């Protein structure tokens, strides 16, 4: 049986990556990636907006190792924000700090973020810092707190498979957070290994953040989680304006539309760019059902 660990291994394997990139569309990546260019991403977002769905775009790329690459990645984020403003689509921006040079120079990364947030503020837009693996967690939260001294249009992501998730959520009261289960392989010393423990903690941190009066983005394709959140918010008098649901582009599209039709904010995470490989492998790792995208792509004409 193909396992989660197998795909997580492939997501970090450069040998396989180099070969896979040559025939990426045949892997089914095109079904979950909104093209390679900003223009293609905007066209996808516009179509989703017409269905009553709002979006966040993410220019794929992580673990850059030079100042030039980091600056180029930041410039790409700025161009994406400008494109969102020019096209008038309902969309914000997601990004990874490693793509902005976190592993090269912390100050470089911070300065890139400041440039991006200045542009987002000019356009009255919001930027989400995606959470990466555990080794980057502390630096990500430290930079977030530093940025929030000057900007309120920035938030981040907390992963429920980490033991420290509830403490982090409480410390980030009042900040717009995307809450997720988690997509990396982490040590038993820092993370739950059983799915039921991850799910239980996920619902816990959602309720904690909502009851704190903080804006909460519930990023899940699990209909059971979604229904429980709907019930919880109704029973506790929590306005639909205080939270949103989020899903990945290309997954559970009928459920996405259903949630939007019920009057909830449904935001679609729309990735684009040439460096799609790591993202795609993690999606295959998350749920065995996702493997069908790859198989359909391989055997399609």
Describe, in short, the structure shown.
Helix content is 47%, strand content 14%.
What are its keywords?
301 residues; alpha/beta; TIM Barrel; 8-stranded parallel β-barrel; 12 helices; 14% strand; globular; disordered C terminus
What does this 3D model show about the protein?
- One of its GO terms (molecular function) is oxidoreductase activity.
- This protein is of the alpha/beta class and 301 residues long.
- The chain has a single domain (34-275), classed as Alpha-Beta Barrel (TIM Barrel).
- The protein is built from 12 helices and 8 strands.
- The protein has helices spanning 4-11, 14-20, 38-50, 67-87, 106-122, 137-147, 165-171, 195-211, 223-235, 253-261, 277-286, 291-299; strands spanning 54-59, 91-95, 127-129, 154-159, 177-180, 216-219, 243-248, 266-272.
- It has an 8-stranded parallel barrel with strand order 1-2-3-4-5-6-7-8, surrounded by 7 helices.
- The longest helix has 21 residues, at 67-87.
Map the helices and strands.
Blueprint: H1 4-11, H2 14-20, H3 38-50, E1 54-59, H4 67-87, E2 91-95, H5 106-122, E3 127-129, H6 137-147, E4 154-159, H7 165-171, E5 177-180, H8 195-211, E6 216-219, H9 223-235, E7 243-248, H10 253-261, E8 266-272, H11 277-286, H12 291-299
Parallel strand pairs: 1-2, 1-8, 2-3, 3-4, 4-5, 5-6, 6-7, 7-8
Helix pairs in contact: 1-11, 4-5, 7-8, 8-9
